[in-house]
Specification:
By secondary structure, this protein is mostly helical. It has 17 helices and no strands.
Length: 466
């Protein structure tokens, strides 16, 4: 009997490999998860500052930010196509190829960012045609004009982050987020309220006008540039210095990044779109449901940032293994990342179930909204594991260069399963807001199951490097 059981125990050497992979993932995941979480604080500060101006400016800033990111997410997805290119080059020990991937990524940011900037400005010019009131539309345009200059620096930031995380230089990524958050608070207050903010705390005036909504956007633009410069300095100080020859434009690496990154951009747009449609559906219920939805979504989005960071780390580890043609290492990296992501989301699910009112009170003091949010947080607890699993597995597949299937799985899961089911539960079966959230849960679970199947299939044999 003992001999029979021993057959299923991993050999000591195999256990050592799994432990080593787990430690490496944790070391890489912690700073990346912190950095992703820190990014959300930038938007939260701007919302809190603009909220002091009143309902109209707050709504305009929210709409302007949504418009900016709806378009920018396409460019961000394209830039994430650099992740496997850099990670696999590092895994193969080819520093020159990794450097070229970075420099071509910078050129790609300029190539992709320019038309996206024009697209955002064009959409902002025709807001009234989409039913937006003229007073709100004019404020949105002020926000967009100030925010658009940050698009290309943001895409360059993503390229630099891909290179640094693949080469183990996560410190500049963390520093950039900390510096940006420190700068953002006073800068946002100063630009939104002008000299009156200085007077309120007894400081001398500097002749700064109150820019209102546009001030928050200029603060975000400034912080984005700061983050890009911090990462650029991190790359400059790295052990693998860029050479002048690395900056020569090369079509092949850019074409590969485009082919890998475009499905990622479309996938992110599909995810963004389904939540936007759920917001619209919530607006057709009542104000309490919409407010409770925002409370629960804010909390669920905060916990989601951790698996996103773990997914980025998993992408790097899988890419390294693929680059060195390590079939077992590829599988270990993916499943170790999955275990880490699920482990964290089990903790967050337990917290949602046991402390829902305390968590909801962090966002609002309205007891009616809190009570409604408690029910939604119970549903959120159910889909925490699937949400974390699909985020990590998307990273694992990205590291292997497999991004088209992730796009298909997201479109099918959200638009063929999640959204239709949510609408039926909410409006046909009269379940209200929880019905839409059960639909989201079903969609995320469908995506997670598809991605698990895909990674198992991909990792059964050696993955060819890009």
């Amino acid at each position: 009997m003992t001999a029979s059981v021993d057959r299923f125990k991993p050999a000591p050497e195999e256990r050592a490999h799994w432990l080593s992979e787990g430690r490496a993932l944790v070391r890489l995941s912690v700073p990346l998860a912190f950095a992703h979480f820190g990014q959300t604080l930038l938007g939260a500060v701007d919302t809190a500052v603009v909220g002091r101006l009143g309902e109209l400016p707050l709504g305009a800033a929210g709409l302007g930010n949504s418009l900016f990111f709806t378009v920018t997410v396409l460019g961000m997805g394209v830039m994430l196509g650099l992740d496997p290119l850099v990670a696999q080059a590092v895994g193969a020990g080819d520093d020159a190829r990794a450097r070229r991937a970075l420099t071509q990524g910078v050129w790609l940011a300029l190539l992709v960012g320019t038309p996206l900037m024009a697209g955002i400005v064009w959409l902002a010019a025709y807001l009234e045609a989409f039913g937006i009131a003229s007073d709100s539309a004019s404020l949105v345009r002020l926000y967009v004009v100030a925010r658009v200059p940050s698009l290309i620096p943001f895409l360059v930031f993503v390229a630099l982050r891909s290179y640094l995380q693949a080469t183990g230089g996560t410190r500049p990524v963390v520093v950039s987020v900390i510096v940006a958050n420190i700068v953002n608070v006073p800068l946002s207050i100063l630009l939104v309220f002008g000299d009156s903010a200085l007077t309120a705390v007894g400081l001398p005036q500097l002749g700064v006008p109150a820019l209102g909504v546009a001030g928050a956007a200029w603060a975000s633009t400034g912080c984005t540039v700061v983050q890009m410069l911090v990462l650029a300095e991190g790359v400059r100080r790295g052990s693998s210095r860029l050479r002048l020859s690395d900056w020569k434009v090369q079509r092949a690496p850019m074409a590969t990044a485009l082919s890998i990154g475009t499905p990622i951009g479309l996938q992110l747009l599909a995810e963004f779109g389904v939540f936007a449609l759920v917001n619209v559906a919530m607006g057709n219920l009542d104000a309490t449901s919409l407010a409770a939805h925002q409370v629960a979504l804010t909390l669920a989005s905060a916990t989601f940032m951790i698996p996103v960071g773990i997914g980025a780390a998993t992408s790097v580890r899988v890419g390294h293994a693929v680059g060195r043609r390590d079939e077992a290492g590829t599988r270990r990296a993916g499943f170790a990342g999955l275990a880490l992501g699920i482990g964290f989301m089990l903790v967050s699910a337990t917290t949602f179930l046991t402390l829902p009112r305390l968590l909801a009170h962090l966002i609002t003091t309205d007891e009616v909204v809190v009570e409604a949010a408690v029910g939604l947080l119970a549903v959120a607890a159910v889909f925490q594991v699937s949400d974390g699993a699909q985020a990590v597995l998307a990273g694992a597949l990205r590291g292997a260069g497999d991004t088209r299937f992730t796009l298909i799985a997201n479109v099918a899961g959200h638009y063929l399963v999640g959204l239709p089911l949510g609408l039926v539960l909410t409006f046909t079966l009269s379940m209200g807001a929880p019905g839409l959230w059960w639909g989201l849960s079903a969609g995320l679970s469908a995506v997670a199951l598809c991605l698990i199947w895909r990674f198992v299939k991909v990792s059964r044999s050696a993955v060819a490097p890009l």
